[in-house]
Amino acid sequence: MLILRRSDVTQTLAGREAEIIELVAEAYRLHDEGRTAVPHSIFLRFPEEDHARDRVIGLPAYRGGERPAAGMKWIASWPGNVAAGMERASATVVLNSLENGRPTAFLEGSVISAKRTAASAALAARVLTEQAPPSGVTLIGCGVINLEILRFLAAALPGLREAALYDKDPARAASFAELCAAEVPGVKATPVTDLSGALAGHPLVSLATTAAEPHLDLSDCAPGTTVLHVSLRDLTVETILGADNIVDDADHVCRERTSLDLAEQRTGGRDFVNASIGALLRGTAVLERRPDRHVVYSPFGLGVLDIALAEYVRERAEDEGRGVRVDDFLAS
Q1: What is the domain count for the chain?
Q2: 77 and 201 housed in the same domain
Q3: CATH no. for residue 108?
């Protein structure tokens, strides 16, 4: 058993944004081809009111293809951690041998989770704005995920030069701007206090909040804006129904009271979903952009991305001599 700590994972993935984006693209193509196994996520919730917003999610998955891998991510989300100065999410990933089923690696998973989420968003931004790449982005929610999204957008969209930063807490947006300047110096990040102006400011918007219920429409956005709806519960049903919608997997994203789940409950179907990102990548679907409609990308976050990236980390960490090996983890 190879145990990879957060520092091991971080060092292994540092500066590899372009490779991670292509790894995610490959996983989406395989998924669209039917060469993955991605059961529905398991949501562990709690009966006490004190933990009403807390949850732990299990995402088992298998990636086929030339380099098969299998395992599971176990990720906890505690929104109250943010006010206490802690990260909202913590996670682990276990990989299993496809020869005998035994666990081969145990990895700190929050870095993997954040980077695969960001790579998915950046990949979608590249695909969906190919005809008119943006020079600026508005980030709604100043946390770990949008920091990674900005980092990956800078790799996917070389012409990106500006980022407007909005958070309900202006002080958080201000400190986030300093972090962005240090981590992604090629993009000028500016905190803003006017949400309407922020939405109108750029043709690309990333939503990465802790919202539990829809609270936002896109009426302030310019026509044709591309929205990375990463947190899945921000947009009203009317907004979803009035947009062109791209998903990673409709069966996964139309669950658990996401905005798309509520839209399906409202309409009784999924006709509002135009295509999956995998189908767009493979050319089995085409999105004809309409100048009067927004395009909304809502990725549930498939566990196969975590497994693909975890296996990538394991392979490179072993080559680089990282991590702690525990040879007697299992009985002989």
Answers
A1: 2
A2: no
A3: 3.30.1780.10
> For residue 79, what are the domain limits?
2-112+303-325
Structure confidence by residue, pLDDT tens digits, 203-235: 999 999 989 899 999 999 999 999 999 999 999
Calpha distance 278→153 (Å, rounded)? 19
- Cα–Cα–Cα angle for 29, 240, 149, nearest 5°? 55
Examine residue 119 and state whether it is found in any structural domain, yes or no. Answer: no
CATH code of the domain containing 281: 3.40.50.720
Which residues, including other chains, have CB under 8 Å from residue 192's CB and lie 6 or more apart? 164, 165, 166, 173, 198, 201
Give tens-digit pLDDT for 230-253.
999 999 999 999 999 999 999 999
Report if residue 126 sits inside a domain.
Answer: no
Mean pLDDT of the chain, nearest integer: 96
Cα 50 versus chain centre, distance: 27
Q: Where are the alpha helices (DSSP H) in the chain?
A: 6-13, 17-32, 110-128, 144-156, 170-183, 195-201, 237-241, 250-253, 259-267, 277-282, 303-320
- 0.85 surpassed by pTM: yes
Examine the domain organization and report whether 218 and 318 are in the same domain: no
Identify the pLDDT of residue 82.
83
Query: What pLDDT is stored for residue 332 in this prediction?
Result: 65
Q: What gap in Å lies between CA 161 and CA 137, rounded to an integer?
A: 9
Both tokens of 168, joined, read 């309900």
- Which residue positions in the chain have pLDDT lower than 50? none
